[in-house]
């Protein structure tokens, strides 16, 4: 069954087109062979362990799967024709079977190597041992292992493992008289009911958090009152009764996540900050869970940094960034591919955001090469959403540095990609693209381009009064002389500042600092200077 599934998955892989990495440094072709992807994800120690594992288990030095492993390890892009040439004497059908076998062996090797570092793998291993002992008729030995596994699962909040453990205990007690404990039946029945209730609450809250996050990934912030009403109605219908009174770690975690996404979608940044902080504080209360749920801890720090950024909490932002950067240097993160890449992406976004807050755009450009290099090296493991966000952030850096041509290059990576993610970013990438052409003085393009962007944003229901005013200003200002332009800029500035407190009308401020851009025109200063002066003023007020 497993082999047939792997055969099907491997057969459906689309090989990378030759030269695709050269075509796009920042966004290579993501379609690739899953075995190739797995092998490219391996560290040196993991490759060495695989070689020892496979040679020890096979007893043969010249194994075909070792040859296949070496061939895949050496090529930079997956090409089946190149691979067949390297695998002299192997036919195409044989290659498919070898790939399935190698895939399973690499996973088995990794499971053996990583079991000590993964609580989930250890619990599964304990359950497997207990099941083997049960099949051998060694019931008491099986129950002892199950007891230890149950204790480990409870102490680490891994309640999801308890149903299968309890189910095996019940099977043993149902079919055999073990006399292992008095009132065993009543205890197991009560335990099963308690665990099921707990898992039901965790499941419903995690579903809610996931659905809200999914809404944000697709749409971004609420666009209008209709979106707001829809999100409120969904939250009211989906929030389980008594969810706020739960004391378990996972219930509280998913409760905080749900309300963090709910607030973020609605642009209630103060509430977003409160729940992002509660999210991180949960791990401070139970430090053991940082190792158990490292990914959730990293994501919590990322959201807390975003909340500080949205509220312009300069000092707290810097403090949290230092905390996150220090954690990223721990062995737990550095030795785990997923956590290492995740931390790098989030810290990169945070550092760019810090330059946005301080107006230090030129210093921020120093981050670009490192980010680009990482995106190319780890493109197989970075999701499209993060690439989309980073391209937009980098484009904003170049816009703030008055390098509008490079800004446009990065915006094209967003505009030209067919994606069903972040319609909001796709809209504001087009608006920023229009602003960059305006700055370059490309008057011949402005009329047709502004109509195109306007239609796109209207179609996506992304037009607010701010955007409407922006399009009017851009269209009307093209034929004006510098002397005529100044009053129009002042009028436009007055219009958007007047709407600054209206959440739905200022949605664009979450994506573009339009006010600082217009102020730079009115006061004849670089945009970076205007933003840095605001930062200095905020420091003096505190």
Describe what this molecule looks like in 3D.
By secondary structure, the protein is mostly helical. Helix content is 75%, strand content 0%. Among the domains are: 2-115, no CATH class; 118-181; 384-542, Alpha Horseshoe (Serine Threonine Protein Phosphatase 5, Tetratricopeptide repeat), CATH 1.25.40. The chain has helices spanning 2-11, 20-23, 34-40, 44-58, 64-74, 80-86, 92-114, 119-135, 139-155, 162-175, 184-219, 225-238, 249-265, 269-285, 288-292, 294-311, 314-328, 331-334, 337-358, 361-364, 366-377, 384-400, 404-415, 423-439, 443-459, 465-477, 482-498, 514-523, 527-541. α1 (2-11) crosses α7 (92-114). The longest helix has 36 residues, at 184-219. Residues 1-31 have low confidence and may be disordered.
Features:
542 residues; mainly alpha; Serine Threonine Protein Phosphatase 5, Tetratricopeptide repeat; 29 helices; 75% helix
Short description:
With 542 residues, the chain is mostly helical. Helices cover 75% and strands 0% of the residues.
Question: Secondary-structure blueprint of this entry?
Answer:
Elements: H1 2-11, H2 20-23, H3 34-40, H4 44-58, H5 64-74, H6 80-86, H7 92-114, H8 119-135, H9 139-155, H10 162-175, H11 184-219, H12 225-238, H13 249-265, H14 269-285, H15 288-292, H16 294-311, H17 314-328, H18 331-334, H19 337-358, H20 361-364, H21 366-377, H22 384-400, H23 404-415, H24 423-439, H25 443-459, H26 465-477, H27 482-498, H28 514-523, H29 527-541
Helix pairs in contact: 1-7, 4-7, 5-7, 8-9, 9-10, 10-11, 11-13, 13-14, 14-16, 16-17, 16-19, 17-19, 19-22, 22-23, 22-24, 23-24, 24-25, 26-27, 27-28, 28-29
